Each structure stands twice: as structure tokens, then as C-alpha cells.
């Protein structure tokens, strides 16, 4: 038998979650965000399951090229635009849509000689202060682009800093956006998953869901299941050893857990080299034989330890769920002081993936 750790990807759940996004924003087109290898789920696998989306959003030219070479003719947005002007001929040839988030990028693309018309997005900084041009410079940026015959459609966009927790900040950013763009009559895109689910006034022409497509909630107080989503990735393994530990003995590296009484513990084939967070401390939720229990001590490179007190029948070979169906990834993330996004995108390439449909 090979090492039992496996990531199961339920492609029917992806399609279901897309339909939840559509139902929540019925008048908008959906740009499925598949950056970071589709949040760790596999770019091409996710794209196939999400082909009913109206477009895809990626980060790197290479990802867009992969989608085009697989035959996807959808609009494809490059979320950070081009990193080097040398990418522009390929962007034009493949009819990709770069986001222009600095004025110099707009100038460069306007002055380039390109073989095909390029549709672009202009990203405005409405308060997140990460990427985006100052709205005051929008008129000159638009003028430069409109003067270039090879620039096709222009979409305006922005990104929310706190759509998952702070309604007032969404309203401020939305107001800034509307002041700068309301009179222009151009298509607009604002909403990530959190805004899509909670702030209908942000829906506009294109919504940009990411995390919700993968079945996780963008909100701390709700899981994906609470809002009608289905988990897509289930990370499963098995116990590869069972130990009996005496009261007062330590478990694992650094003896970070010391047994409070005589107890049975299990060793799971999954460690930080698989993407499980090393900073998961004692008490992180985990399922053994379908039963909720907790991790103990430090996570090792290839293994972690679990408490079998609540699972007396557990044995070598018992099934373990690290997250997914039966154990929301959000609960694991919260216990580790992080977010589901980080856990999902960290899945290591060495973990075999098995695809299922439902
Ligand atoms: C990643 C990303 C999204 C998707 O965000 P989620 O919170 O995963 O829904 C949307 N828009 C932009 C610009 C992004 O970079």
C-alpha cells in the first residue's frame, strides 16, 4: 500500500458552488478566480468543473496560456496585469485581459504596437492601498488608452479590503468608486466572495468569487456549509501507528504535549511538508474514524499526532480527515490562527489528488 495521504477533489461541488455564486448575483457575469492553482485544487481540474463561468481570473501569463492551450475561449483576466512589457504580444495574441493597476502600465500598453485589440481593466485604489491607481488620475489614464487604436473594451475595477468583516469600509470604498466612475458608463467589477455574498450593491457587471467556489466561507463566523456551499477538497489519511503514553510523558518533537493521564495516541501520515500548518498547536480539530478529536504536540514534517481518547476503537489503518467533508477547513484554519485560503493553497505537490464527481 502506498502512503495513505490523499486530497479528494469533488468537482461536482465546484460546479454547485458556482451556481450558488450565480444565484447570489443573478444579474452579474461571474469571473471565476482560479489563481494559485485554483486555490490549491488544480488549475485545469477546476477550470473544467467551472467551465460554465463567464470568465476566469489568474495571476500569471503561464496560467492563462495553459487555459488557452486547453481550448478555453472564455475571457481571461490577468489580475496583476503584465509584469514586463515583453509579455504584451502574447497577451494580445491570446486575447487576455490585463488589469492595469499603475498609470505607467496604462502608458506602456497604450504606446505598444500590438497585433490584436486588447480589452483591459483599470484598477482603482479606493481605500485598500495595495494595488490600483488614484481615482484622480483616471481621466488622463482613460484618455491615453482611448487614444490607442489597439485598446478595445475598458472595464473599471476595485478590490475591497474588509468585505468579510467591516460593512462601513465596503460602503466607503463603494462610494469612492462610484464618485470616480459613476458618470462614465463603463462596465465595472468590484465584488470578491465576501462582497458577492453580503453586499449586493457591489455586484455590478462582473463578480469575482474565489474562496466560495472552493466551498469555504470568507466570513469568520460562518462556514461554507452554513451558507449553502459544499467543500471541494477533503484531505484524508490514515493512522500509521498507535502508541500508549504514560501520564507525564511527552509527545513528539520538543515534547510540546505532555500526557495528563495514561492515554492512547495515533500517528497520522500527514505533516507540514504536505501543507498541513506546522503552527497547528495541540487541540486542532481532526476526525479519526469519523469521530472529532484533536491533534497533540508539534506537527512533524511527515506526521502528526492525535488524541485517541474519544476513539477507543481506532487502530492502525483507521481513516483520518484533516479537513473537508465532515470537518470544515475553516475550523482547522481558525484553530491555527489562519484562514482557509492559506491551508488550501499550501497543499504540497507531493500529495496525490483523486478527483470525484459528487
Ligand atoms: C483573489 C482575488 C479575488 C477573489 O477573492 P476571494 O476572497 O477568494 O473571493 C477577487 N478579486 C481579486 C482582485 C483577487 O485578487
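Q: What amino acid sequence fits the structure above?
A:
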Amino acid at each position: 500500500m502506498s502512503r495513505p495521504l490523499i486530497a479528494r477533489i469533488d468537482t461536482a461541488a465546484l460546479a454547485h458552488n458556482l451556481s450558488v455564486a450565480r444565484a447570489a448575483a443573478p444579474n452579474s457575469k461571474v469571473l471565476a478566480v482560479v489563481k494559485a492553482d485554483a486555490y490549491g485544487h488544480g488549475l485545469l481540474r477546476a477550470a473544467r468543473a467551472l467551465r460554465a463561468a463567464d470568465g476566469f481570473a489568474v495571476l500569471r501569463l503561464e496560467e492563462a496560456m495553459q487555459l488557452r492551450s486547453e481550448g478555453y475561449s472564455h475571457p481571461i483576466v490577468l489580475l496583476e496585469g503584465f509584469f514586463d512589457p515583453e509579455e504584451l504580444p502574447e497577451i494580445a495574441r491570446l486575447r487576455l485581459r490585463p488589469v492595469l493597476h499603475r498609470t505607467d502600465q496604462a502608458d506602456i500598453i497604450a504606446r505598444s504596437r500590438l497585433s490584436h485589440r486588447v480589452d483591459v481593466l483599470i484598477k482603482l485604489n479606493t481605500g485598500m492601498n495595495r494595488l490600483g491607481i488614484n481615482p484622480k488620475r483616471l481621466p488622463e489614464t482613460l484618455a491615453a488608452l482611448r487614444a490607442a487604436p489597439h485598446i478595445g473594451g475598458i472595464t473599471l475595477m476595485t478590490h475591497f479590503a474588509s468585505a468579510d468583516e467591516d460593512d462601513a469600509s465596503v460602503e466607503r470604498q463603494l462610494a469612492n468608486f462610484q464618485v470616480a466612475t459613476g458618470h462614465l458608463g463603463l462596465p465595472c467589477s468590484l465584488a470578491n466572495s465576501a462582497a458577492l455574498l453580503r453586499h449586493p450593491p457591489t455586484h455590478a457587471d462582473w463578480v469575482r468569487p474565489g474562496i466560495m467556489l472552493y466551498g469555504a466561507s470568507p466570513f469568520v463566523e460562518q462556514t461554507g456549509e452554513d451558507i449553502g456551499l459544499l467543500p471541494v477538497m477533503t484531505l484524508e489519511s490514515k493512522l500509521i501507528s498507535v502508541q500508549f503514553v504514560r501520564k507525564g510523558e511527552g509527545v513528539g518533537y520538543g515534547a510540546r504535549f505532555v500526557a495528563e493521564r495514561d492515554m492512547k495516541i495515533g500517528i497520522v501520515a500527514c505533516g507540514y511538508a504536505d501543507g498541513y500548518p506546522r503552527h497547528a498547536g495541540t487541540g486542532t480539530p481532526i476526525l479519526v474514524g469519523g469521530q472529532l478529536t484533536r491533534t497533540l504536540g508539534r506537527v512533524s514534517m511527515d506526521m502528526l499526532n492525535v488524541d485517541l481518547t474519544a476513539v477507543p476503537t481506532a487502530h492502525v489503518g483507521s481513516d483520518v480527515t484533516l479537513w473537508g467533508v465532515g470537518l470544515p477547513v475553516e475550523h482547522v484554519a481558525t484553530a491555527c490562527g489562519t484562514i482557509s485560503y492559506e491551508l488550501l493553497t499550501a497543499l504540497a505537490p507531493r500529495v496525490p489528488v483523486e478527483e470525484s464527481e459528487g
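Q: And what stands out in the fold?
A: Residues 33, 35, 79, 159, 192-194, 208-211, 218 surround pyridoxal-5'-phosphate (CB under 6 Å).
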